[in-house]
TrEMBL record:
Alphabetical list of SUPFAM superfamilies matching this protein: Kelch motif (SSF117281), POZ domain (SSF54695)
The protein's name: BTB domain-containing protein
InterPro entries xref list: BTB/POZ_dom, Kelch-typ_b-propeller, SKP1/BTB/POZ_sf
Domain BTB residues, every copy: 380-447
Any one Pfam family match given in the protein's UniProt record, by short name: Kelch_KLHDC2_KLHL20_DRC7
Keywords assigned: Kelch repeat, Repeat
UniProt biased composition (Polar residues): 555-564
Biased composition (Acidic residues): 581-599
Length: 599
């Protein structure tokens, strides 16, 4: 079956009608829309010889792959042909690697990715083949064969990196009902033998699904004498059992086997006989419709005599029997989590739906920095009025679900709970970034690195581990001269030692420029001393050419040695003079390290 045009293509075979056993190498097609059969006349290219017992596999882009079979001289073939259904052209591509042994009545199946074609079993000179091998369709290279199971006249499919086979005959003409698979990852062979003695009333092993019955045992163990045709629908195998060749056998059924759950399910039994009056020979599948191809029976005999030409086609709607491929019954598309985040984020700072207000310190106010965040959430009693930012409108339910600190505050019925209002003594931009994260579970790209550094302090104080990870990820590649001192200070407060060390190295590497920034001047006296102490005891400040040296054509060096108090850049009496001393290093000056701190 070609899924692109819903046409069934038939190649080869031999003539029963005139009892000549003539082998064909022609191509026939049946249009399943009009049920009209047509012979493709005079195809071009390298036309294969007549044969039977070969396999025909639809690949892609209108390509049909023919392999193996037996010719009119009884030679078992191992040649490969490709028929282009669009141009009606035959070709015999060059293949590489060791070709497999010629055979007929084998099975072929395409990998789930469509890049490999697997062959297994078959018949050759009274011997049943038991190997499996693969053709890489991208490189046209044969793989080495592996041992599988001796079987012919069977069918195969690939599911979940396993080759599964159904039906067929063994060396002694046995008709096994077991399902066997070959694991493509481990080369292991396994089988599932069905217990034919399972009790229909065993609730532990019987599961009703819709109008069908699902069970691990074979659903028709006493009716295996019929002729079975298998169609593969994703992870489901459909078994159409038609009337068998034995005169006494009149039983029919339609069953399915789920490759994932490894369970049989009866879809229809002999009470719904749609196979009578014809002898069926082939099955093809298109979407959710299976097509049985066969011949009519002469009415003269009680049991019928086959009129051995393909002149009957039976369409079977799998959806009617509850056996449609799972992939064709997809549920409605579920919105992605991103859309849910967007919907919740849209509620942030919405005064119409808000039931709680949060205020902060205005960004323009030179209030306390991150060191002031000691856990106070309200302004408290102060002798000096603290500026308050515009209100930020939030929703108590969202904050309770996302912010453990807020949940504890409301559960304890503190003053903020009754007033529906809370003040956080941090800059408004930092507080807004915190609340935005609680609504969206992310940090907006518009938030500056400095604000993210201050947000890192809040993530530590409020025990928000995901926010902490987002902050670290955003900061670690965002160092520059202007923000490095602030990052260092915030990392120190948040006890992020790795980030603190990285920020300190950056500051000391660009010391001449860092000490001239507003961020460095905004550090407290203690913080200035501590950032200087990031240099080890053997550290030096190597000065570049400053303006005085440029005028006098000389280069100067300043060093701070252990025990040399006169060389300390800052002391407890830090003043404008001390700052000027630090700035005696020109803008190209940097700190040199020894030992583990070497740069």
């Amino acid at each position: 079956m070609c899924p692109e045009d819903r046409k069934i293509y038939i190649f080869g075979g031999f003539d029963f009608t005139m009892s000549t056993d003539e082998l064909f190498n022609s191509v026939m097609l049946i249009d399943t829309n009009t049920y009209k059969a047509t012979s493709i006349k005079e195809p071009s290219g390298t036309i294969p010889s007549g044969r039977h017992g070969h396999t025909a596999t639809y690949w892609k882009d209108g390509k049909l792959i023919i392999f193996g079979g037996e010719n009119e001289r009884g030679v078992f073939l191992n040649d490969l042909y490709v028929f282009d259904l669009r141009t009606l052209t035959w070709s015999s591509p060059t293949t590489y690697g060791r070709k497999p042994i010629g055979r007929s009545r084998h099975a072929a199946c395409l990998s789930e990715c469509g890049k490999r074609l697997y062959f297994c079993g078959g018949f050759r000179q009274h011997t049943v083949m038991s190997d499996i091998f693969c053709l890489d369709l991208e490189t046209m290279t044969w793989s080495d064969s592996r041992h599988f199971v001796a079987r012919y006249d069977h069918v195969a499919t690939v599911h979940n990196e396993k080759v599964w086979i159904f039906g067929g005959l063994t060396q002694d003409m046995g008709r096994p009902s077991e399902v066997i698979w070959f694991d493509l990852r481990t080369s292991a062979v396994a089988s599932l033998r069905f217990d034919e003695g399972i009790n229909e009333g065993d609730d532990e092993d019987v599961l009703r699904i819709g109008n069908g019955r699902s069970r691990r045992g074979t659903p028709n163990p006493d009716k295996r004498a019929g002729t079975h045709f298998y169609a593969f629908c994703g992870s489901t195998v459909i078994d159409f059992m038609t009337h068998g060749p034995a005169i006494h056998n009149t039983e029919t059924s339609i069953t399915s086997f789920d490759l994932t759950e490894q369970r049989w399910r009866t879809l229809a039994d002999s009470t719904c006989d749609i196979f009578s009056g014809n002898a069926w020979a082939y099955v093809a599948l298109s979407g959710t419709t299976a097509f049985l191809l066969g011949s009519a029976l002469y009415p003269e005999s009680q049991y019928g005599i086959e009129h051995e030409v393909i002149c009957r086609i039976l369409p079977i709607d799998l959806k009617y029997y509850g056996a449609a491929p799972k992939q064709s019954l997809q549920p409605p598309t579920v919105p992605q989590p991103e859309s849910l985040n967007a919907d919740i984020s849209a509620l942030f700072d919405d005064p119409e739906t808000s039931d709680f207000v949060i205020t902060a310190i205005p960004d323009g106010h030179d209030g306390p920095g991150p060191t002031s965040v000691a856990g106070a959430d309200s302004a408290g009693d102060t002798t000096q009025p603290i500026p308050v930012s515009d209100p930020i409108y939030v929703h108590a339910l969202i904050l309770q679900a996302r912010w453990p600190h807020f949940k504890r505050l409301t559960n304890s019925r503190m003053r903020e709970y009754h007033r529906k209002r809370m003040h956080i003594p941090e800059k408004c931009s930092t507080v807004r970034a915190l609340l935005s994260y609680l609504y969206s579970d992310t940090i907006a790209t518009t938030v500056s690195v400095v604000t993210v550094a201050k947000l890192l302090v809040l993530s530590n104080m409020y025990a928000l581990p995901r926010l902490r990870d987002l902050c670290i990820s955003r900061i670690q590649d965002g160092f520059d001269v202007a923000n490095a001192p602030t990052i260092w200070e915030c990392a120190k407060i948040a006890q992020e030692d790795v980030l603190r060390t990285s920020a300190a190295r950056f500051c000391l590497r660009h010391w001449g420029r860092v000490v001239r920034t507003k961020a460095f001047r905004g550090l407290s006296k203690v913080a200035m001393l501590e950032i200087c102490e990031e240099v080890d005891l053997e550290g030096q400040v190597v000065m570049g050419w400053d303006s005085h040296d440029r005028r006098h054509g000389s280069r100067s060096t300043a060093s701070a040695n252990e025990g040399d108090t006169s060389g300390a850049m800052l002391d407890d009496a830090t003043s404008e003079a001390d700052m000027a001393m630090a700035e005696d290093v020109d803008s190209d000056g940097e700190a040199e390290f020894d030992g583990d701190s070497a740069t």
